[in-house]
Amino acid sequence: MIEFKDVEKYYGDFHALKNINLKVEAGETVVLIGPSGSGKSTLIRTVNGLEPIQEGHLIVNGFDLADSKTDMNRIRKNVGMVFQHFNLYANKTVLENIMLAPRKVLKIDEAENKRVAMALLERVGLAEKADKMPSSLSGGQQQRIAIARSLAMKPKALLFDEPTSALDPEMVNDVLNIMKEIAADSDMTTLVVTHEMGFAKQVADRVIFMADGQILEDAPTTEFFAHPKEPRAQKFLSQIMH
């Protein structure tokens, strides 16, 4: 589904990703953790081409993003992304936010598009907000709308870049519960950057620990939290869990 082969990423002289080798199977839920600045967000932003790589190969759904012939729009149709700060269209209603991309990109029938959008709003518990403007919603509600908008494109994979970090604490659980439902879908591949260790323990198949642009540990979730092997992972867990 997603495979990094000797991937290197630079910002000028800054070496952001170093020799990344990682494979995420279809239907798998993988959580990336690590200190700020470790390269987690950069890594997942390369998966849908928001950040280009400079060396190596990144295979997504059979297409190599390092190949200039790869159609990035085709990649993005199948790889959705949920950001920290929602990125909803402020001048469109909640319903229109969800319907816009399927209308423009998938050319979906308008009646079907609305039916799917309303079903997704129901799924995230916000059907009654369909005609509201995003500015009238709380941060947690806006993030749930952003998730529904990503799901409307029927992606094969969803990327979450610290989706709860900008939320007030009392709003975090509503978003995490939706993410848990998505992770439980055996057909959906999810790659999540988060500091929510409880969420990681509950839903991740594997945990990736990163620091200084490198993957230092890649382990099954239970094994990682019980016996992290890398000293930096041990120190990180001891700090964040307390």
Report on the architecture of this protein.
This protein has 242 residues and is an alpha/beta fold. The chain has one domain: 3-Layer(aba) Sandwich (Rossmann fold), CATH 3.40.50.300. Helix content is 39%, strand content 25%. The protein has 9 helices and 10 strands. It has a 6-stranded mixed beta sheet, sandwiched between helices. A 4-stranded antiparallel beta sheet has the order 2-1-4-5, covered by helices on one side. Strand 1 and strand 2 form a beta hairpin. The longest helix is centred in the C-terminal third of the chain and has 16 residues, at 169-184. The model has no long low-confidence stretch (mean pLDDT 94).
The gist of it:
By secondary structure, this protein is an alpha/beta fold.
Descriptive labels:
242 residues, alpha/beta, Rossmann fold, six-stranded mixed sheet, four-stranded antiparallel sheet, 9 helices, 10 strands
Runs with pLDDT <50, length 5+? none
Trace the largest sheet across and list its strands: 6-7-8-3-9-10
Indicate the structural class: alpha/beta
Cα(first) to Cα(last) distance is 35 Å
Please state the average pLDDT score: 94
Number of domains: 1
Give the second-level CATH assignment, the architecture.
3-Layer(aba) Sandwich
CATH topology: Rossmann fold
What's the number of helices?
Answer: 9
Helix-strand sequence: EEEHEEHEHHHEHEHEEHH
CATH superfamily: P-loop containing nucleotide triphosphate hydrolases
Largest sheet, in brief, is: 6 strands, mixed
Radius of gyration: 18 Å
Query: Beta-strand level of the residues, as a percent range?
Result: 25-35%
CATH class: Alpha Beta
